[in-house]
Amino acid sequence: MSIAAAEPAAPARSIDPAHVFWILAAIVTAAIVMLPAEALPAWARKYPAAWQLPFAAWISSFTKWLMDSASFGLFTVRDLTRAISWLLDQPLSLARAVFATGFVRGQGSDAVTVFPAIPWFSMVIAATAAGYAVGGRRLALGMAAGLLYLAVFGQWTSAMVTLASVLVSSVLGSIGGLLIGLACVRWRWLERAAAPFLDIAQTMPVFAYLLPMLILFGFGPVSAMVATVIYALPPMVRVTILAIRAVPEEIEALGRMTGCTRRQITWKMLVPTALPALMVGVNQVIMLSLNVVIIASMIGAGGLGWDVLTALRSLNIGKGLEAGIAITVLAILLDRFAQALALRAGAVEAEDAARRRKAFVSSALAIAVAFWLLTALFPAIAPYPEAWKLSTAPYWGQFVSWINVTFFSTLEAIRTAVLLNILVPVKRFMLALPWPWVVFLVTAIGFRLGGWRLALTVGLMAAFPALVGLWPATMITVYLCGVAVVIAALIGVSIGIVAAGRPRLWRTVEIVIDTLQTLPTFVYLIPIVMLFRVGDFTALIAIVLYAVAPAIRYTAHGVSRIAPELIEAGVMTGCTRRQILTRIRLPLATPEILLGINQTILLALSMLVITALVGTRDLGQETYSALAKADVGRGVVAGIAVAFIGMIADRLVSAAAAGMKARRGPPQ
Amino acid sequence: MRTALSSLAIACACSILALTAPSGPARAAPESKDPIKITLNDWTGELISAHIVGEILKKAGYNVEYVPADYLAQFAGMGTGDLTFAPEVWATTAQEALDAAVATGNVEDLGGSGMQAREDWWYPEYMKEKCPGLPNWEALKKCGEAFSTPETAPKGRYLGGPVTWGGYDEERIQALDLPFEVVHAGTDAAMFAELKSAYERKAPIILWIYVPHWAPIKYKGEFVEFPKFEKACYEDPAWGSNKDAKYDCAKPRGDIFKAAWSGMKKKWPGAYEIVKAYKNDNKTIGELAAKVDIDGQKVEDVAAEWVNSNEAIWRPWVKQ
Question: InterPro entries, from UniProt (chain B) (predicted)?
Fold first, then answer.
């Protein structure tokens, strides 16, 4: 299409038959939107209420049955989930005791501390030593600086509560994801069966299933942890499947020839070989776990998430930011530590260097433990002294106020321009599309890209929102996320191209995107509301900021993976830099870029929960309102509609990427 | 090593136990030593109410635990007994959630907390110059322009609460023929962020505000005086200045209820009586909230101080 637009004056050039479908689809769509409203029958413009299926009511009564009376004979479903909840509570309570609360006897205000939690100085010493042991001086320095930030800025207690729950849920998520992934590799049917659940878990807004979960697992940290694991586990499963499949055939063959059992092949050969790739999944689990810290705090997890929420409700922007950055600090420390650990697993070290390192680390750990014991005898020395605390909170508040007072009219002009020229027209267009045409178009695209099977799947998913009477909200969702994804993709792909192959720049970019992915959106949402008011534009900025990260990551990865010989060949044949970019780098990296955009779409959809908080009228608002009205069915139905949008996009983009790869032939 | 550690731990435990053994006046034995879980929502007034109730229960000998909980998610927690008591459930924002929870039979409505929510259209003081005649609502008829933004001009922009709060503002605008358009905020945090932004720039704004809240204490301004609410106004079109429309009046003042897990009555009868009897008023909570939000004191300290200096008020609630 871009060729046709760029060279309209070349009529001799016949249109590529492969493009006819797309051009035709665009023309017909435009024509339909321009038709006067009366030209279409009423049922096509607005899905008749009489045709709606009462899915919401069915789900409500099903969950009510499940939660109140479903039984296995000897015990009810609720007994079972409560038992699971008790089991999960054991590691969590232990971690909370060690890091945050100390070992106590009794509950509530009667609790008596039997043994204190690790005091901040022991933690700093131990973590620094551990950092040195696995990652050398650099990591040790990072650990010390990060933890000191938490202490100096008065975030220690909350940060340790959050650390305990994130640690446990990351471990559970990583191990669970690994096991499910391995099972999927062994049994193909399981992979097919699990795929839709993974998509739904990743895209369904947590608000949608919050109520049933609270009743089944109880109100408190365990529920929060279950929600966290549900949300953070899918990428680990996906990565495991990819990573294990990517292990060279020869390794498995070797295992079989030397007479290894199946278990030995899996755990002694496949998993260790795939470890570096698996760590990408662990990274995602950690990042996503920290991502739901805020929502987890709403249902009893407490910690930093709660601090952010409370600070921002009283519009204390600086305090919210400091607590938010503490979340990011935790994320980066955990991630870098896990990465270093994985790197080390394969490294070999000289014997005496190893011995020296071991001696150093164990003496540091001994000191940390000694200090810990000391706090048990003298509890007064444990807390970080009030007088040494710092806060930059007032300055941040003043900074935002200054921008507000000084630049508001400029920002207002930008906002109005984007709103009137992009957002409003796109919204009108999407709402003007008759639902039967959209369903047909999605089906046709599915057929074109992946055959009848894909067509059927995506067609049915596209029809679902109409069937349950959520069509307008769905179209608003598609419009908001669609515009955000286009903008995020443009920004992300350009940054990715520029940063790839420039290691120093890449390190900076990586810190920025890690921050964007883990800093709670709420932290920057409130200042954005102050500067841009509530509404779609504010939601758009928040979605773009959050969803841009994978586009950058995958693009950079794809571009830097291109074989250097190909670039060299380009240089030798006299390509300009621009030609190398447009003719070699971009086309070769396209499959990776598409995967990145795929992730961007999923992240954009997962932001809908947050955009509901700034007054959009989309499916996110629908799930949020359902929570307000304690209407389980309505929330779940809206959540499924969100998940279906994500799955349609995912299936179509993946099919397009696969088609492109197939056309280009096997990788060199 | 391990045995040494554990014996040390036990030694410590004993010494701490000895230190913290109750030494004050003898306390009545509570029915159950399980912690009574009081919810902490995310606004200051509620935090203060929760801590005041908690302190009183502690003085009566009960074991209390505070659990941070989302305002709407807390009803599910109370339904299963995971949470015990919510001190502030506003009729204006959570009536439906409360009704639904009470209908299940697992949550009990403990009646009013003595506080009254007032919510209505509110503007900062500096807008009085731009729209003479305020706070009388009829002044708004000529002030659409003064409150307008590019998207709503020439109509004024009224920032309403989240859609879920209801409030009939669209209907009110129609009925009273006001030149305004409603824009809904998604949360009250977003709503007050807009107020802060406008207040700093002395820019026009008119929005939904509810009290008791810290915002009208921190920012100077007034409620618009609409015709006083009567039940007939919401039910009978003939009532009020517009003979053909309902909602041509102010919003109703709503009670702020207390709610509890219905098993509380059995498990802690004494504590149940205390929380049922607990009452407070807007002025007290508003002033305490100001101490926290404006003077920067800690919620726990403010609540404890109130409990210590007002024993005459709460002592009768505690059955001996």
Answer: ABC_Gly_betaine_transp_sub-bd (IPR007210)
Q: Does A84 touch chain B (CB under 8 A)?
A: no
In this prediction the pTM is 0.81
> Which of A109, A219, A630 is nearest residue B82 as measured by Cβ atoms?
A219
Alpha carbon distance B305, B289 (integer Å): 13
**Residue B157 phi, psi (nearest 5):** -110, 120
- Residue A14 touches chain B, beta carbons under 8 Å: no
Whole-complex ipTM: 0.74
For A386-396, how does the pLDDT look when each residue is reduced to its tens digit (9 = 90+)?
A: 888 888 888 88
- Main-chain phi, psi angles of B40, to 5 degrees: -110, 115
| Residue A64 within a domain | no
Q: Read off the CATH number of the domain in which A605 is found.
A: 1.10.3720.10
What is the tens place of the pLDDT at every residue in A421-455? 888 889 888 888 889 999 999 999 999 988 899 99
What pLDDT score was predicted for residue A13? Answer: 54
Are the Cβ atoms of B203 and A408 closer than 8 angstroms?
A: yes
Q: What is the pLDDT of residues B195-250, one digit of tens each?
A: 988 998 899 999 998 887 878 888 899 999 998 888 888 888 888 788 888 888 88
Task: Give A594→chain B minimum CA distance, Å.
Answer: 33
CATH 3.40.190.100 fits B117-235, yes or no: yes
Strand partners, A115: A103
Residue A643 structure tokens: 């998940």
A526 touching B (Cβ < 8 Å): yes
Domain covering B29-115+255-317, topology:
D-Maltodextrin-Binding Protein; domain 2 (3.40.190)
The answer to whether position A398 is within a domain reads no
Range of A596's domain? 408-668
